[in-house]
Specification:
13 strands; 4 helices; six-stranded antiparallel β-sheet; five-stranded antiparallel β-sheet; mainly beta; 9% helix; 235 residues
Length: 235
């Protein structure tokens, strides 16, 4: 079970987009200007901070996420051959090409992603990635992706994408230990684009938490619901 969130991160680069807290989670976002290859883009990062008390007593960190990023500008992703077929793949889960420190601090080689946990600390299991076709598929080995499996097309001009999954390598302890919390999503968008994230997060312990309309900067609305990845782990 988890906390459903809706966060808007619009505004000037380098501005803190906002934070909101209710029950056991505090959500926040930051926006920084990209440099180098990311010049002309803003990098919007979303964090979830966990207070492991009450119904999350004994939780060790962020375990699951089911969220969608929506923006007014086309999202930028990282592309790299992940399945050794010679064709560059999109990385909407951020697990193959970005470690946590680079994702938190780097402004030159980032891509949009949604995930739970630091990929260097444990595997993130993506239960669902939409749209499909982030990984290329070349069944006849002709060097051309099969129809529907061309990442350059499927992730070339998106204004939204969704990822649902959980980490099997242990919940992300940064949700508790780091002052900012766990980095669970990033949107790389053209400078000034509005960014919204909606969906669910969950710790490794705890029940659903309804979060009412927040009063802090940058947020639209939050409510509680069950999380697919959490259910999968408890099955």
């Amino acid at each position: 079970m988890g906390s459903k969130l809706t966060i808007w991160a619009a505004g000037a680069a380098l501005a803190l987009a906002g934070s909101s807290a209710y029950a056991n989670f505090t959500f926040s976002s930051t926006r920084t200007a990209g440099t180098g290859a990311q010049a002309g883009f803003d990098i919007v990062r979303f964090f979830a901070k966990l207070d492991p008390t009450g119904n999350t007593a004994g939780a060790t960190g962020l375990q699951s996420v089911d969220a969608e990023i929506i923006t007014s500008g086309n999202l930028k992703f990282r592309f790299q051959d992940q399945n050794a077929d010679g064709i560059a793949d999109a990385d909407p889960t951020g697990t193959a090409t970005q470690n946590d420190n680079a994702a938190r601090l780097g402004n030159t080689n980032n891509g949009s992603f949604i995930r739970a946990g630091d990929p260097t600390a444990g595997a993130f299991n993506a239960v669902s990635v939409l749209p499909p076709g982030a990984l290329s598929k070349d069944s006849d080995f002709d060097g051309t992706p099969d129809p529907g499996f061309d990442p350059a097309v499927n992730y070339g001009s998106l204004k939204s994408f969704r990822v649902a999954g959980f980490t099997a390598g242990g919940a992300d302890a940064k949700a508790i230990s780091d002052p900012a919390g766990s980095l669970f999503a990033m949107a790389v968008v053209p400078t000034g684009s509005a960014v919204q994230i909606v969906g669910f997060v969950a710790a490794d312990k705890g029940n659903a938490e309804a979060i009412p309309e927040p009063t802090a900067l940058g947020f639209i609305g939050i409510a509680g619901a069950a999380l697919l990845g959490r259910r999968r782990k408890q099955a």
